[in-house]
Amino acid sequence: MPLTTRAALVESGGAPFTFADVTLADPGPNEAVVRVVAAGLCHTDLGVASGGLPFPLPGVLGHEGAGIVESVGASVTSVAPGDHVVLSFTSCGTCRNCNGGHPAYCADWLPLNLLGGRRADGTATITRDGEEIGGHFFGQSSFAERALVDERSLVKVDPEVPLASIAPLGCGVQTGVGAVWNVLKPEPGSTVVVLGAGAVGLSAVMAAALSPATEIVAVDRVPERLDLARELGATRTLTDVREITQADGIVETTGSTAVLRAGVDALAARGTLVVVGAPPFGTEVALDVNGLLTGKRVVGLTLGDSETQSLVPTLVGLVKSGRLPLEKLIGTYGFEDIGQAVKDMTEGRTVKPVLLF
User: Alpha-carbon distance 339 to 354, whole Å?
Assistant: First the structure.
């Protein structure tokens, strides 16, 4: 039968999060009901809440959930009731990129995760007072005590690892890690530069510290963020990207076109810059074409180009062993304090807020 649960909703673009009881649809054959234990707050959630993306509102956001499976649809085989899971993005599972191990570039990624607010067949997953509202956000909509989740969004994880410590793996952390491991793939002696020391950038710093890179440079304007970057493995910190020269690999997380351009100019011959930060749709940047002829590459990235079923458990293992110290990024808040979490994140007091249910 349909399940009623408490959720944090956004009524319209720019409105604050408010709480209401909503009703989850019956699980389909490839869906599961998850009791949410923790959920990370991400800039993508805030971008949609502000009205910057055409997600149907009112709606339930949240895409870095972690919890315990309560029930599963008839065709679900990867998890069972009682399993601990991290919730990540969903994908169709049948297109060329999904079959090739690149589900973050699924042919239907945007409608399934970010824009549609419905299942692939157009049916709603969440109603309020009998009216359909936006749901199925990244296949989960985890800003709720219970979430109806696509099987392809579910990753079974080690139950010995506290779920609050690994919820951010669903999006931000795997994005930063994947930028380094899946795209830059640092060679021994190389230099990796990370532009922006937020959650994604600091995740890239940690990933670089686990690679053969010799020099890891973090660039940010906030001294406290640079102090944290040094704790996490940066060998040098700077406040101005223009001080960088001859970088082998750069991860750009700020979304600033000026920073992006300066980063491309700072690349060494055959160097690669990974574009992670997302400015408003339609934003353009001018590049020196002749400067690119030395073999420089500029590569866009979604969610670290991750195959979640293999990457997320690996990252959980690194958290458990202490080699990926995510706890240094996380600040925890009660679910009812989501407004304060948004404020602290926006004002830079907390790198990665995690809501506890």
Answer: 12
